[in-house]
Design goal:
Layout: H1 2-18, H2 22-32, H3 35-51, H4 59-66, H5 98-124, E1 133-135, H6 143-152, E2 161-163, H7 175-179, E3 189-191, H8 199-208, E4 217-219, H9 231-234, E5 245-247, H10 255-264, E6 273-275, H11 286-292, E7 301-303, H12 311-321, E8 329-331, H13 342-349, E9 357-359, H14 367-376, E10 385-387, H15 393-396, E11 413-415, H16 423-433, E12 441-443, H17 458-463, E13 469-471, H18 479-490, E14 499-501, H19 510-518, E15 528-530, E16 539-540, H20 545-553, E17 560-562, E18 566-567, H21 570-582, E19 588-590
Parallel strand pairs: 1-2, 2-3, 3-4, 4-5, 5-6, 6-7, 7-8, 8-9, 9-10, 10-11, 11-12, 12-13, 13-14, 14-15, 15-17, 16-18, 17-19
Length: about 600
Protein backbone atom coordinates (compact mmCIF):
# COMPACT_ATOMS: atom_id res chain seq x y z
CA UNK A 1 0.00 0.00 0.00
CA UNK A 2 2.77 2.39 0.97
CA UNK A 3 4.72 2.01 -2.30
CA UNK A 4 1.70 2.84 -4.45
CA UNK A 5 1.20 6.12 -2.54
CA UNK A 6 4.88 6.95 -2.90
CA UNK A 7 5.00 6.53 -6.68
CA UNK A 8 1.76 8.40 -7.29
CA UNK A 9 2.27 11.48 -5.15
CA UNK A 10 5.99 12.32 -5.21
CA UNK A 11 6.04 13.30 -8.94
CA UNK A 12 3.20 15.78 -8.29
CA UNK A 13 5.15 17.31 -5.44
CA UNK A 14 8.14 17.84 -7.74
CA UNK A 15 6.01 19.62 -10.34
CA UNK A 16 4.39 21.91 -7.76
CA UNK A 17 7.82 23.14 -6.71
CA UNK A 18 8.95 24.01 -10.30
CA UNK A 19 5.78 25.50 -11.77
CA UNK A 20 3.26 28.24 -10.93
CA UNK A 21 0.46 26.54 -12.92
CA UNK A 22 -2.94 26.96 -11.13
CA UNK A 23 -3.75 23.33 -11.71
CA UNK A 24 -0.61 22.38 -9.82
CA UNK A 25 -1.67 24.67 -6.99
CA UNK A 26 -5.03 22.90 -6.81
CA UNK A 27 -3.33 19.50 -6.63
CA UNK A 28 -1.05 20.81 -3.89
CA UNK A 29 -4.06 21.92 -1.83
CA UNK A 30 -5.55 18.44 -2.13
CA UNK A 31 -2.21 16.94 -1.13
CA UNK A 32 -1.99 19.03 2.04
CA UNK A 33 -5.27 17.59 3.24
CA UNK A 34 -4.24 13.96 2.62
CA UNK A 35 -3.09 11.54 5.41
CA UNK A 36 0.18 11.10 3.56
CA UNK A 37 0.92 14.82 3.78
CA UNK A 38 0.47 14.65 7.56
CA UNK A 39 3.06 11.89 7.67
CA UNK A 40 5.49 13.74 5.37
CA UNK A 41 5.19 16.83 7.55
CA UNK A 42 6.26 14.79 10.57
CA UNK A 43 9.39 13.68 8.71
CA UNK A 44 10.16 17.24 7.58
CA UNK A 45 9.99 18.46 11.15
CA UNK A 46 12.47 15.83 12.33
CA UNK A 47 14.92 16.70 9.55
CA UNK A 48 14.52 20.40 10.15
CA UNK A 49 15.84 20.13 13.69
CA UNK A 50 18.90 18.21 12.41
CA UNK A 51 19.46 20.85 9.72
CA UNK A 52 19.50 23.62 12.33
CA UNK A 53 22.10 21.83 14.45
CA UNK A 54 19.74 20.71 17.20
CA UNK A 55 20.29 17.28 18.72
CA UNK A 56 17.79 14.67 17.49
CA UNK A 57 17.83 10.91 18.16
CA UNK A 58 17.50 8.70 15.14
CA UNK A 59 13.99 7.52 14.33
CA UNK A 60 14.99 3.98 15.26
CA UNK A 61 16.02 4.96 18.79
CA UNK A 62 12.95 7.19 19.12
CA UNK A 63 10.79 4.21 18.18
CA UNK A 64 12.10 2.04 21.00
CA UNK A 65 11.97 4.90 23.50
CA UNK A 66 8.40 5.86 22.68
CA UNK A 67 7.01 2.34 22.85
CA UNK A 68 4.40 1.98 25.58
CA UNK A 69 5.16 -1.31 27.40
CA UNK A 70 1.48 -1.79 28.11
CA UNK A 71 0.08 -1.21 24.66
CA UNK A 72 0.34 1.04 21.59
CA UNK A 73 3.07 3.53 20.82
CA UNK A 74 2.38 7.26 20.91
CA UNK A 75 0.08 8.52 18.17
CA UNK A 76 -0.59 5.01 16.85
CA UNK A 77 -4.33 5.59 16.53
CA UNK A 78 -3.78 8.67 14.37
CA UNK A 79 -1.51 6.71 12.04
CA UNK A 80 -3.58 3.54 11.61
CA UNK A 81 -4.53 4.72 8.12
CA UNK A 82 -1.06 3.76 6.86
CA UNK A 83 -0.98 0.54 8.96
CA UNK A 84 2.39 1.23 10.60
CA UNK A 85 3.35 1.60 14.24
CA UNK A 86 5.53 4.72 14.61
CA UNK A 87 6.44 7.25 17.26
CA UNK A 88 4.85 10.67 17.31
CA UNK A 89 7.01 13.80 17.33
CA UNK A 90 5.22 16.47 19.27
CA UNK A 91 7.65 19.34 18.67
CA UNK A 92 6.92 21.87 15.92
CA UNK A 93 9.94 22.23 13.63
CA UNK A 94 10.51 24.49 10.61
CA UNK A 95 10.34 22.74 7.20
CA UNK A 96 13.44 21.67 5.30
CA UNK A 97 14.19 23.35 1.95
CA UNK A 98 12.18 21.69 -0.83
CA UNK A 99 15.35 20.50 -2.56
CA UNK A 100 16.21 18.21 0.38
CA UNK A 101 12.75 16.75 0.82
CA UNK A 102 12.54 14.23 -2.00
CA UNK A 103 16.15 13.01 -1.65
CA UNK A 104 15.52 11.71 1.88
CA UNK A 105 11.93 10.48 1.71
CA UNK A 106 12.69 6.90 0.65
CA UNK A 107 15.34 6.23 3.30
CA UNK A 108 13.13 7.61 6.08
CA UNK A 109 10.22 5.54 4.84
CA UNK A 110 12.37 2.42 4.90
CA UNK A 111 13.47 3.16 8.46
CA UNK A 112 9.92 3.58 9.69
CA UNK A 113 8.85 0.38 7.97
CA UNK A 114 11.94 -1.43 9.24
CA UNK A 115 11.44 -0.53 12.85
CA UNK A 116 7.88 -1.77 12.64
CA UNK A 117 9.23 -5.09 11.34
CA UNK A 118 11.68 -5.24 14.26
CA UNK A 119 8.81 -4.78 16.68
CA UNK A 120 6.77 -7.53 15.05
CA UNK A 121 9.74 -9.92 14.95
CA UNK A 122 10.46 -9.48 18.65
CA UNK A 123 6.76 -9.73 19.52
CA UNK A 124 6.59 -13.07 17.69
CA UNK A 125 9.36 -14.39 19.94
CA UNK A 126 7.80 -13.00 23.12
CA UNK A 127 10.47 -10.32 23.52
CA UNK A 128 10.45 -6.57 23.87
CA UNK A 129 12.46 -4.55 21.33
CA UNK A 130 15.60 -2.84 22.54
CA UNK A 131 17.70 -0.64 20.32
CA UNK A 132 20.98 -1.72 21.97
CA UNK A 133 20.43 -5.31 23.10
CA UNK A 134 19.08 -8.16 20.94
CA UNK A 135 18.65 -11.00 23.45
CA UNK A 136 17.28 -14.09 21.66
CA UNK A 137 18.79 -16.64 24.03
CA UNK A 138 16.94 -19.99 23.95
CA UNK A 139 14.20 -18.86 21.55
CA UNK A 140 14.14 -22.01 19.37
CA UNK A 141 15.27 -19.98 16.36
CA UNK A 142 15.48 -21.68 12.98
CA UNK A 143 16.97 -20.80 9.60
CA UNK A 144 13.93 -18.74 8.60
CA UNK A 145 14.13 -16.69 11.79
CA UNK A 146 17.81 -16.05 11.28
CA UNK A 147 17.22 -14.90 7.71
CA UNK A 148 14.53 -12.53 8.93
CA UNK A 149 16.83 -11.21 11.68
CA UNK A 150 19.57 -10.61 9.11
CA UNK A 151 17.22 -8.38 7.16
CA UNK A 152 16.45 -6.32 10.26
CA UNK A 153 20.04 -5.39 11.16
CA UNK A 154 20.09 -2.33 8.83
CA UNK A 155 17.38 -0.84 11.06
CA UNK A 156 19.35 -1.36 14.29
CA UNK A 157 22.44 0.85 13.87
CA UNK A 158 22.80 1.41 17.63
CA UNK A 159 22.90 -2.31 18.49
CA UNK A 160 25.68 -3.23 20.96
CA UNK A 161 24.77 -6.76 22.09
CA UNK A 162 23.52 -9.85 20.23
CA UNK A 163 22.83 -13.08 22.11
CA UNK A 164 21.75 -16.08 20.01
CA UNK A 165 22.85 -18.71 22.53
CA UNK A 166 21.12 -22.08 22.99
CA UNK A 167 19.43 -22.04 19.60
CA UNK A 168 20.70 -25.34 18.26
CA UNK A 169 18.72 -25.21 15.00
CA UNK A 170 20.71 -22.33 13.50
CA UNK A 171 23.95 -24.22 12.98
CA UNK A 172 25.14 -23.90 9.38
CA UNK A 173 22.96 -20.83 8.71
CA UNK A 174 24.98 -17.98 10.19
CA UNK A 175 26.52 -16.67 6.97
CA UNK A 176 23.54 -14.41 5.97
CA UNK A 177 23.70 -12.84 9.43
CA UNK A 178 27.45 -12.25 9.36
CA UNK A 179 27.14 -10.57 5.94
CA UNK A 180 24.85 -7.96 7.51
CA UNK A 181 26.95 -7.24 10.60
CA UNK A 182 28.44 -4.15 8.93
CA UNK A 183 25.11 -2.46 9.69
CA UNK A 184 25.79 -2.87 13.42
CA UNK A 185 29.37 -1.65 13.51
CA UNK A 186 28.94 -0.54 17.15
CA UNK A 187 28.48 -4.16 18.25
CA UNK A 188 30.37 -4.91 21.48
CA UNK A 189 29.08 -8.33 22.55
CA UNK A 190 28.31 -11.43 20.47
CA UNK A 191 27.25 -14.64 22.22
CA UNK A 192 26.72 -17.81 20.21
CA UNK A 193 26.75 -20.53 22.89
CA UNK A 194 25.47 -23.95 21.87
CA UNK A 195 24.41 -23.04 18.33
CA UNK A 196 25.91 -26.12 16.65
CA UNK A 197 28.23 -23.92 14.64
CA UNK A 198 29.78 -25.50 11.55
CA UNK A 199 33.09 -24.84 9.83
CA UNK A 200 31.29 -22.49 7.42
CA UNK A 201 29.79 -20.57 10.34
CA UNK A 202 33.21 -20.17 11.95
CA UNK A 203 34.80 -18.99 8.71
CA UNK A 204 31.95 -16.54 8.05
CA UNK A 205 32.25 -15.12 11.53
CA UNK A 206 35.98 -14.71 11.04
CA UNK A 207 35.37 -12.69 7.86
CA UNK A 208 32.90 -10.48 9.75
CA UNK A 209 35.34 -9.54 12.52
CA UNK A 210 36.83 -6.81 10.34
CA UNK A 211 33.48 -5.02 10.08
CA UNK A 212 32.67 -5.03 13.80
CA UNK A 213 35.81 -3.27 15.07
CA UNK A 214 34.39 -2.43 18.51
CA UNK A 215 33.67 -6.04 19.51
CA UNK A 216 34.70 -6.61 23.14
CA UNK A 217 33.07 -9.96 24.00
CA UNK A 218 33.02 -13.12 21.89
CA UNK A 219 31.50 -16.24 23.45
CA UNK A 220 31.44 -19.41 21.31
CA UNK A 221 31.12 -21.92 24.14
CA UNK A 222 29.52 -25.36 23.80
CA UNK A 223 29.99 -25.61 20.05
CA UNK A 224 31.78 -28.94 19.69
CA UNK A 225 32.38 -28.56 15.95
CA UNK A 226 34.81 -25.71 16.57
CA UNK A 227 37.47 -28.24 17.55
CA UNK A 228 40.23 -28.34 14.95
CA UNK A 229 38.79 -25.37 13.05
CA UNK A 230 39.38 -22.42 15.38
CA UNK A 231 42.08 -21.02 13.10
CA UNK A 232 39.38 -20.16 10.55
CA UNK A 233 38.37 -17.45 13.00
CA UNK A 234 41.56 -16.55 14.83
CA UNK A 235 43.57 -15.83 11.68
CA UNK A 236 41.12 -13.03 10.90
CA UNK A 237 41.59 -11.21 14.20
CA UNK A 238 43.55 -8.07 13.43
CA UNK A 239 46.17 -6.29 15.49
CA UNK A 240 44.58 -3.73 17.74
CA UNK A 241 41.47 -5.83 18.28
CA UNK A 242 39.38 -4.55 21.19
CA UNK A 243 38.30 -8.04 22.34
CA UNK A 244 38.30 -8.16 26.15
CA UNK A 245 36.37 -11.38 26.78
CA UNK A 246 37.00 -14.61 24.86
CA UNK A 247 35.19 -17.80 25.87
CA UNK A 248 35.40 -21.16 24.10
CA UNK A 249 34.19 -23.50 26.86
CA UNK A 250 33.66 -27.17 25.94
CA UNK A 251 34.38 -26.74 22.23
CA UNK A 252 36.37 -29.94 21.75
CA UNK A 253 39.47 -27.88 21.06
CA UNK A 254 42.48 -29.75 19.71
CA UNK A 255 46.16 -29.09 20.36
CA UNK A 256 46.42 -27.09 17.13
CA UNK A 257 43.57 -24.86 18.31
CA UNK A 258 45.73 -24.08 21.34
CA UNK A 259 48.52 -23.03 19.00
CA UNK A 260 46.06 -20.77 17.14
CA UNK A 261 44.99 -19.19 20.41
CA UNK A 262 48.60 -18.61 21.39
CA UNK A 263 49.21 -16.72 18.14
CA UNK A 264 46.32 -14.27 18.62
CA UNK A 265 47.49 -13.29 22.10
CA UNK A 266 49.95 -11.10 20.21
CA UNK A 267 47.12 -8.98 18.79
CA UNK A 268 44.44 -8.88 21.49
CA UNK A 269 46.30 -6.82 24.04
CA UNK A 270 43.08 -5.64 25.70
CA UNK A 271 42.09 -9.17 26.78
CA UNK A 272 40.64 -9.32 30.31
CA UNK A 273 38.93 -12.74 30.43
CA UNK A 274 40.13 -15.98 28.80
CA UNK A 275 38.04 -19.11 29.42
CA UNK A 276 39.21 -22.37 27.83
CA UNK A 277 37.47 -24.67 30.32
CA UNK A 278 36.45 -28.27 29.52
CA UNK A 279 38.81 -28.71 26.59
CA UNK A 280 40.90 -31.69 27.67
CA UNK A 281 43.30 -31.60 24.72
CA UNK A 282 44.27 -27.96 25.17
CA UNK A 283 46.72 -28.97 27.89
CA UNK A 284 49.07 -30.30 25.19
CA UNK A 285 49.56 -26.78 23.82
CA UNK A 286 49.44 -24.95 27.15
CA UNK A 287 53.16 -24.29 27.00
CA UNK A 288 52.70 -22.22 23.81
CA UNK A 289 49.75 -20.36 25.32
CA UNK A 290 51.65 -19.65 28.52
CA UNK A 291 54.59 -18.21 26.60
CA UNK A 292 52.33 -15.66 24.91
CA UNK A 293 50.40 -14.62 28.03
CA UNK A 294 53.01 -11.94 28.58
CA UNK A 295 51.32 -10.05 25.73
CA UNK A 296 48.07 -9.72 27.70
CA UNK A 297 49.44 -8.31 30.92
CA UNK A 298 46.05 -6.81 31.77
CA UNK A 299 44.41 -10.24 31.99
CA UNK A 300 42.07 -10.43 35.00
CA UNK A 301 40.55 -13.92 34.67
CA UNK A 302 42.11 -17.17 33.47
CA UNK A 303 39.88 -20.25 33.46
CA UNK A 304 41.48 -23.61 32.72
CA UNK A 305 38.98 -25.92 34.43
CA UNK A 306 39.33 -29.48 33.12
CA UNK A 307 41.84 -28.64 30.41
CA UNK A 308 44.19 -31.60 30.80
CA UNK A 309 46.86 -29.45 32.45
CA UNK A 310 49.86 -31.49 33.55
CA UNK A 311 52.87 -30.80 35.71
CA UNK A 312 54.94 -29.25 32.90
CA UNK A 313 51.97 -27.11 31.80
CA UNK A 314 51.60 -25.72 35.30
CA UNK A 315 55.29 -24.93 35.42
CA UNK A 316 54.96 -22.96 32.16
CA UNK A 317 51.99 -21.08 33.64
CA UNK A 318 54.07 -20.32 36.70
CA UNK A 319 56.58 -18.48 34.53
CA UNK A 320 53.74 -16.48 32.95
CA UNK A 321 52.32 -15.41 36.32
CA UNK A 322 55.11 -12.85 36.73
CA UNK A 323 53.56 -10.88 33.84
CA UNK A 324 49.93 -11.22 34.98
CA UNK A 325 50.03 -8.88 37.95
CA UNK A 326 46.40 -7.83 37.45
CA UNK A 327 45.05 -11.39 37.57
CA UNK A 328 42.03 -11.65 39.88
CA UNK A 329 40.58 -15.10 39.11
CA UNK A 330 42.55 -18.29 38.51
CA UNK A 331 40.73 -21.59 37.94
CA UNK A 332 42.90 -24.70 37.60
CA UNK A 333 40.29 -27.12 38.92
CA UNK A 334 39.73 -30.72 37.76
CA UNK A 335 43.21 -31.11 36.32
CA UNK A 336 44.09 -34.38 38.01
CA UNK A 337 47.61 -34.65 36.58
CA UNK A 338 48.70 -31.34 37.99
CA UNK A 339 50.08 -32.95 41.16
CA UNK A 340 53.59 -31.94 42.21
CA UNK A 341 53.53 -29.07 39.71
CA UNK A 342 53.29 -26.39 42.39
CA UNK A 343 56.83 -26.96 43.59
CA UNK A 344 58.33 -24.98 40.72
CA UNK A 345 55.51 -22.47 40.17
CA UNK A 346 54.72 -21.42 43.73
CA UNK A 347 57.16 -18.51 43.83
CA UNK A 348 55.51 -16.90 40.81
CA UNK A 349 52.04 -17.65 42.20
CA UNK A 350 52.93 -15.56 45.24
CA UNK A 351 53.41 -12.53 42.96
CA UNK A 352 49.65 -12.42 42.23
CA UNK A 353 48.93 -9.83 44.91
CA UNK A 354 45.55 -8.89 43.39
CA UNK A 355 44.28 -12.48 43.14
CA UNK A 356 40.76 -12.70 44.59
CA UNK A 357 39.59 -16.18 43.51
CA UNK A 358 41.67 -19.36 43.51
CA UNK A 359 40.04 -22.65 42.52
CA UNK A 360 42.15 -25.79 42.94
CA UNK A 361 39.42 -28.34 43.57
CA UNK A 362 40.06 -31.89 42.39
CA UNK A 363 43.68 -31.33 41.44
CA UNK A 364 45.18 -34.32 43.26
CA UNK A 365 47.35 -32.01 45.33
CA UNK A 366 50.21 -33.94 46.89
CA UNK A 367 51.87 -33.49 50.26
CA UNK A 368 54.79 -31.84 48.46
CA UNK A 369 52.37 -29.35 46.87
CA UNK A 370 50.78 -28.69 50.23
CA UNK A 371 54.12 -27.89 51.80
CA UNK A 372 54.61 -25.18 49.18
CA UNK A 373 51.00 -23.90 49.16
CA UNK A 374 51.07 -23.60 52.94
CA UNK A 375 53.77 -20.98 52.48
CA UNK A 376 52.33 -19.27 49.40
CA UNK A 377 48.55 -19.00 49.92
CA UNK A 378 48.82 -16.84 53.07
CA UNK A 379 50.76 -14.30 50.96
CA UNK A 380 47.78 -13.75 48.64
CA UNK A 381 46.49 -10.88 50.73
CA UNK A 382 43.59 -9.99 48.39
CA UNK A 383 42.17 -13.53 48.28
CA UNK A 384 38.41 -13.68 48.83
CA UNK A 385 37.40 -17.13 47.54
CA UNK A 386 39.33 -20.38 48.01
CA UNK A 387 38.19 -23.79 46.77
CA UNK A 388 40.32 -26.77 47.79
CA UNK A 389 37.60 -29.44 47.56
CA UNK A 390 38.26 -33.08 46.67
CA UNK A 391 41.93 -32.93 47.57
CA UNK A 392 42.11 -35.59 50.28
CA UNK A 393 45.68 -34.89 51.29
CA UNK A 394 44.60 -31.52 52.66
CA UNK A 395 42.75 -33.07 55.58
CA UNK A 396 45.49 -35.56 56.37
CA UNK A 397 48.50 -33.29 56.01
CA UNK A 398 50.53 -32.42 59.06
CA UNK A 399 51.38 -28.99 57.59
CA UNK A 400 47.86 -27.76 58.33
CA UNK A 401 47.43 -25.30 55.47
CA UNK A 402 43.97 -24.55 56.90
CA UNK A 403 45.40 -23.01 60.05
CA UNK A 404 47.17 -20.36 57.95
CA UNK A 405 43.95 -19.07 56.44
CA UNK A 406 43.86 -16.69 59.40
CA UNK A 407 46.27 -14.47 57.46
CA UNK A 408 43.63 -13.85 54.76
CA UNK A 409 41.22 -11.42 56.44
CA UNK A 410 39.34 -10.69 53.18
CA UNK A 411 38.41 -14.35 52.69
CA UNK A 412 34.62 -14.67 52.37
CA UNK A 413 34.23 -18.10 50.73
CA UNK A 414 35.94 -21.29 51.96
CA UNK A 415 35.06 -24.54 50.21
CA UNK A 416 36.72 -27.59 51.78
CA UNK A 417 34.29 -30.31 50.63
CA UNK A 418 35.47 -33.93 50.59
CA UNK A 419 38.97 -33.24 51.89
CA UNK A 420 39.12 -36.10 54.41
CA UNK A 421 39.34 -33.67 57.31
CA UNK A 422 40.56 -35.18 60.55
CA UNK A 423 39.71 -33.78 63.96
CA UNK A 424 43.05 -31.98 64.14
CA UNK A 425 42.73 -30.35 60.70
CA UNK A 426 39.09 -29.45 61.40
CA UNK A 427 40.16 -27.84 64.67
CA UNK A 428 42.83 -25.86 62.75
CA UNK A 429 40.18 -24.61 60.32
CA UNK A 430 37.81 -23.69 63.15
CA UNK A 431 40.55 -21.68 64.85
CA UNK A 432 41.44 -19.88 61.60
CA UNK A 433 37.76 -19.05 61.01
CA UNK A 434 37.82 -16.90 64.14
CA UNK A 435 39.93 -14.45 62.11
CA UNK A 436 37.60 -14.36 59.07
CA UNK A 437 34.96 -11.76 59.96
CA UNK A 438 33.72 -11.45 56.36
CA UNK A 439 33.00 -15.16 55.90
CA UNK A 440 29.85 -15.62 53.77
CA UNK A 441 30.16 -19.16 52.38
CA UNK A 442 31.41 -22.21 54.26
CA UNK A 443 31.24 -25.68 52.68
CA UNK A 444 32.40 -28.61 54.83
CA UNK A 445 30.32 -31.29 53.12
CA UNK A 446 31.47 -34.91 52.89
CA UNK A 447 33.87 -34.55 55.81
CA UNK A 448 32.69 -37.16 58.29
CA UNK A 449 34.69 -35.81 61.20
CA UNK A 450 32.43 -32.76 61.44
CA UNK A 451 29.73 -34.95 62.98
CA UNK A 452 29.95 -34.78 66.76
CA UNK A 453 32.60 -32.03 66.53
CA UNK A 454 30.59 -29.07 65.25
CA UNK A 455 31.08 -27.49 68.67
CA UNK A 456 34.63 -26.70 67.57
CA UNK A 457 33.14 -24.26 65.07
CA UNK A 458 30.69 -22.69 67.53
CA UNK A 459 32.67 -19.54 68.35
CA UNK A 460 33.59 -18.95 64.72
CA UNK A 461 29.93 -19.16 63.68
CA UNK A 462 29.03 -16.66 66.38
CA UNK A 463 31.50 -14.18 64.92
CA UNK A 464 30.55 -14.87 61.28
CA UNK A 465 27.75 -12.32 61.20
CA UNK A 466 27.76 -12.18 57.38
CA UNK A 467 27.44 -15.90 56.68
CA UNK A 468 24.85 -16.62 53.96
CA UNK A 469 25.60 -20.21 52.89
CA UNK A 470 26.39 -23.13 55.20
CA UNK A 471 26.79 -26.58 53.66
CA UNK A 472 27.11 -29.58 55.99
CA UNK A 473 25.89 -32.32 53.67
CA UNK A 474 26.97 -35.89 54.49
CA UNK A 475 28.91 -34.91 57.60
CA UNK A 476 27.61 -37.63 59.95
CA UNK A 477 25.89 -34.98 62.05
CA UNK A 478 24.36 -36.04 65.36
CA UNK A 479 21.45 -34.69 67.41
CA UNK A 480 23.88 -32.62 69.45
CA UNK A 481 25.15 -30.86 66.33
CA UNK A 482 21.61 -29.83 65.34
CA UNK A 483 20.96 -28.66 68.90
CA UNK A 484 24.01 -26.42 68.55
CA UNK A 485 22.64 -24.98 65.29
CA UNK A 486 19.30 -24.39 67.03
CA UNK A 487 21.12 -22.48 69.77
CA UNK A 488 22.84 -20.28 67.21
CA UNK A 489 19.52 -19.58 65.51
CA UNK A 490 17.79 -18.79 68.77
CA UNK A 491 20.49 -16.29 69.75
CA UNK A 492 20.43 -14.58 66.34
CA UNK A 493 23.94 -15.52 65.20
CA UNK A 494 22.84 -16.91 61.80
CA UNK A 495 20.41 -14.10 61.02
CA UNK A 496 21.64 -13.57 57.43
CA UNK A 497 21.72 -17.24 56.46
CA UNK A 498 20.06 -17.82 53.06
CA UNK A 499 20.97 -21.41 52.22
CA UNK A 500 21.42 -24.33 54.63
CA UNK A 501 22.25 -27.83 53.40
CA UNK A 502 21.92 -30.65 55.94
CA UNK A 503 21.22 -33.41 53.44
CA UNK A 504 22.51 -36.98 53.68
CA UNK A 505 22.81 -36.84 57.46
CA UNK A 506 20.77 -39.97 58.17
CA UNK A 507 22.54 -40.18 61.53
CA UNK A 508 20.27 -37.50 63.05
CA UNK A 509 17.42 -38.95 65.12
CA UNK A 510 13.86 -37.60 65.19
CA UNK A 511 14.52 -35.80 68.47
CA UNK A 512 17.41 -33.97 66.83
CA UNK A 513 15.24 -32.82 63.93
CA UNK A 514 12.47 -31.75 66.33
CA UNK A 515 14.91 -29.58 68.30
CA UNK A 516 16.22 -28.02 65.11
CA UNK A 517 12.82 -27.18 63.60
CA UNK A 518 11.61 -25.61 66.84
CA UNK A 519 13.89 -22.60 66.24
CA UNK A 520 14.00 -22.66 62.43
CA UNK A 521 11.63 -19.68 62.15
CA UNK A 522 14.40 -17.44 63.51
CA UNK A 523 16.09 -17.61 60.09
CA UNK A 524 13.99 -14.88 58.45
CA UNK A 525 16.26 -14.60 55.39
CA UNK A 526 16.55 -18.34 54.72
CA UNK A 527 15.31 -19.28 51.23
CA UNK A 528 16.65 -22.84 50.78
CA UNK A 529 16.84 -25.81 53.14
CA UNK A 530 17.80 -29.36 52.17
CA UNK A 531 17.28 -32.25 54.62
CA UNK A 532 17.09 -35.05 52.04
CA UNK A 533 18.17 -38.57 52.96
CA UNK A 534 20.78 -40.63 51.16
CA UNK A 535 19.70 -42.29 47.87
CA UNK A 536 19.81 -45.71 49.53
CA UNK A 537 17.65 -44.62 52.47
CA UNK A 538 13.96 -44.28 53.18
CA UNK A 539 12.43 -43.03 56.43
CA UNK A 540 9.10 -41.95 57.89
CA UNK A 541 8.67 -38.33 58.88
CA UNK A 542 8.48 -37.90 62.64
CA UNK A 543 6.17 -35.76 64.71
CA UNK A 544 8.47 -32.84 63.92
CA UNK A 545 6.81 -32.37 60.50
CA UNK A 546 4.13 -30.11 61.98
CA UNK A 547 6.82 -27.93 63.59
CA UNK A 548 8.53 -27.63 60.22
CA UNK A 549 5.38 -26.39 58.47
CA UNK A 550 4.65 -23.98 61.31
CA UNK A 551 8.15 -22.53 61.02
CA UNK A 552 7.89 -22.12 57.23
CA UNK A 553 4.78 -19.95 57.63
CA UNK A 554 6.88 -17.45 59.58
CA UNK A 555 9.75 -17.33 57.07
CA UNK A 556 8.94 -14.72 54.41
CA UNK A 557 11.95 -15.41 52.15
CA UNK A 558 11.63 -19.20 52.02
CA UNK A 559 11.17 -20.84 48.59
CA UNK A 560 12.74 -24.34 48.42
CA UNK A 561 12.65 -27.37 50.72
CA UNK A 562 14.48 -30.59 49.83
CA UNK A 563 13.01 -33.67 51.58
CA UNK A 564 13.84 -36.50 49.20
CA UNK A 565 13.14 -40.02 50.47
CA UNK A 566 11.21 -38.86 53.55
CA UNK A 567 7.84 -40.68 53.64
CA UNK A 568 4.71 -38.77 54.65
CA UNK A 569 1.84 -40.40 56.46
CA UNK A 570 -1.74 -39.79 55.37
CA UNK A 571 -2.35 -36.97 57.90
CA UNK A 572 1.03 -35.39 57.06
CA UNK A 573 0.17 -35.46 53.36
CA UNK A 574 -3.05 -33.57 54.16
CA UNK A 575 -1.09 -31.08 56.25
CA UNK A 576 1.18 -30.46 53.27
CA UNK A 577 -1.77 -30.01 50.90
CA UNK A 578 -3.39 -27.54 53.30
CA UNK A 579 -0.10 -25.64 53.59
CA UNK A 580 0.16 -25.32 49.81
CA UNK A 581 -3.44 -24.06 49.56
CA UNK A 582 -3.25 -21.71 52.53
CA UNK A 583 0.19 -20.23 51.98
CA UNK A 584 0.38 -16.93 50.12
CA UNK A 585 3.90 -17.85 48.94
CA UNK A 586 5.02 -20.45 46.43
CA UNK A 587 7.20 -22.92 48.36
CA UNK A 588 8.60 -25.79 46.28
CA UNK A 589 8.70 -29.12 48.10
CA UNK A 590 11.13 -31.62 46.57
CA UNK A 591 10.26 -35.06 48.03
Amino acid sequence: MFKSCDSAIIPKMERSETSQDPQNGYEEDLLKRSPFHLFMTQIQRIKSSVGKGKHQHSSVIQFFRDLDPGGKSKGETEREEIDLSRPDNQNEKPDLPASDEVSHNISETDLVSGKWKVKQFMKKLGKKPNSKNMDLNNCALNETDLTELSGLLPFLPELEEINLSWNDFIGGTLKPLTLQLHHVSKLKSLRLNNCRMTAEDIASLGEALEIIPFLEELDLSWNSNIGGKLSLLTKKIQKGSKIKILKVIDCNLAAKDGESLAQILNVIHHLKVLDLSINQKIGCSLKSIAQELKNVSGLEELHLHMCGVKKDGLQSLGTAFQYLLELRKLDLSCNKEIGRGFEDSAAHLASLKDLEVLDLHQCCITEEDLAVLTQVIPLLSSLQELNLSSNKNIGMSSDHLLSRLRFLPKLNSVIISNCSLQKASFASLAEAALHLPDLEILDLSWNKCVGGNLKLLLEALKLATEIRVLILSSCNLAAGDLALLALLMRTGHLAKLQKLDLSYNDTVCDEGWATFYQDLAELKELSELDVSLRPSSCRDCGMWFGKLLTALREMPAFTDLGMQRWVFSGPQQKQLEYFNQDSTRNVRFDY
